[in-house]
From TrEMBL:
EC number per UniProt: 2.7.11.1
Bilayer topology term: Lipid-anchor
Protein name: non-specific serine/threonine protein kinase
Keywords (A to Z) from UniProt: ATP-binding, Calcium, Cell membrane, Kinase, Lipoprotein, Membrane, Metal-binding, Myristate, Nucleotide-binding, Phosphoprotein, Repeat, Serine/threonine-protein kinase, Transferase
Length: 434
């Protein structure tokens, strides 16, 4: 993610773009890197200011990634706290990595001053590193803020306020000839913990400039939010609007519009199928909200609303038709965390689960067996419902319990087996170790 970070964020490596463009890129990169004696980054003078150490005092670590890490720093002149993304020049082996850093800084400079985009302060460099200094956002990620509302009201109007801010980001990008290319909830943070805190777009690592009439031919972004035209290698600014449509769908019903247990399966769903608007809670969601989502999730980008047009829709515009009737999309905190994990993290959790020793597994087996009333080796919807009601005194409606079960049921067979149970347990108890 970008340098406007929370503690759960990481630094995005510039090679991520290339790995997604070309499946053979990583192998090619490794082969080429062995033939080079020094990195392109090490040999490059980026033209940035050289006095970072003199102006900022380093603070706590916030996240790390392939090319460096992100930390809090304090401006020595005024005491302001900022987020700093430090990128290792030695790891910029190829020229494309250098260009990616330059482009990210150029993009942040172009978007500087927008209320819903992380504020860019400056870029610095020394012999070993590039430092990108940005606004520190400490209000947490978008979905975390919504989940925290489980004991209070969360309405269509709340969702519309969030979506409007995302559309403003997309419209601003498109106005500058930019496409964000990775619109997803994880890339939006709240500036502060205040209830009326603005939402900030934070990660422009995959963003790129595009000339009118031109199209991107590479496939980048996150599987759940990728537009059909991206998969068809013929995308433009319209792909950002599709991604916001996916996010809106999730905000309104708590589920993804396109889902499969594999990435290829998700891509096929995006290309071939339509979102489900019949399943609860869609029948009680306002017609205006449904109309808005449907006009964003149009597979033909030429027929899709632009970001500017979407901002004028009656549901999303300020003072518009968004209902203030509470939505019931919150789920139990620990189990719901698993819903938000990427496929990679789910695999990592299952791998972590496999490392538990016999004693640790025995304790979890006892808990699993206590829920598995019919002792058939898996937990059904009814068994999950009974366990939650009896052991935790939670009065849950069946759709809510089904949502929890589906979050844990990674092979989508309608049952939770022991390995899935252990992985979900790791999500709440040991997931912080990842």
């Amino acid at each position: 993610m970008g340098a406007c970070v929370s503690s759960s964020q990481r630094v995005s490596g510039s090679s991520a773009r290339q790995d997604q463009r070309d499946p053979n890129h990583r192998q090619q990169q490794q082969q080429r890197s062995t033939s080079r004696r020094s990195s392109c980054g090490k040999r490059t003078d980026f033209g940035y200011a050289k006095d970072f150490e003199g102006r900022y005092a380093k603070g706590k670590l916030l996240g790390h990634g392939q090319f460096g890490y992100t930390f809090v720093a304090t401006d020595k002149s005024n005491g302001d706290r900022v987020a700093v993304k430090r990128i290792d020049k030695n790891k910029m082996v190829r020229r494309i990595a250098v260009e990616d850093v330059k482009r990210e800084v150029k993009i942040l400079q172009a978007l500087k001053g927008h209320e819903n985009i992380v504020h860019f302060h400056n870029a610095f460099e020394d012999d070993d590193y590039v430092y990108i200094v940005m606004e520190l956002c400490e209000g947490g990620e978008l979905l975390d803020r919504i989940l925290a509302k489980k004991d209070s009201r969360y309405t269509e109007k709340d969702a519309a306020i969030v979506v409007r801010q995302m559309l403003k980001v997309a419209a601003e990008c498109h106005l500058h000839g930019l496409v964000h290319r990775d619109m997803k909830p994880e890339n939006f943070l709240f500036k502060s913990t205040k209830e009326d805190s603005p939402l900030k777009a934070t990660d422009f690592g995959l963003s790129d400039f595009i000339k009118p009439g031109k199209k991107f031919k590479d496939i980048v972004g996150s599987a759940y939010y990728v537009a059909p035209e991206v998969l068809n290698r013929n995308s433009g600014p319209e792909s950002d609007v599709w991604s916001i449509g996916v996010i809106t769908y999730i905000l309104l019903c708590g589920r993804r519009p396109f889902w499969d247990k594999t990435e290829d399966g998700i891509f096929k769903e995006v290309l071939r199928n339509k979102p489900d608007y019949r399943r609860k809670p869609w029948p009680i969601i306002s017609e205006s909200a449904q109309d808005f989502v449907k006009k964003l999730l149009v597979k033909d980008p030429r027929a899709r609303l632009t970001a500017a047009q979407a901002l004028s829709h009656p549901w999303v515009r300020e003072g518009g038709e968004a209902s203030e009737i509470p939505l019931d999309i919150s789920v139990l905190s620990n189990m719901c965390q698993f819903v938000k994990y990427s496929r990679f993290k789910q695999f990592a959790l299952r791998a972590l689960a496999s490392t538990l020793n016999d004693e640790e597994q025995a304790d979890l087996r006892d808990q699993f067996d206590a829920i598995d009333a019919d002792k058939n080796g898996s937990i059904s919807l009814e068994e999950m419902k009974q366990a939650l009601e009896k052991d935790f005194s939670w009065s849950l409606k069946e759709p809510r319990v089904l949502e929890i079960l589906q979050a844990i049921d990674t092979n989508t067979d309608g049952q939770v087996d022991f390995s899935e149970f252990v992985a979900a347990t790791c999500a709440s108890a040991g997931g912080a170790r990842l």
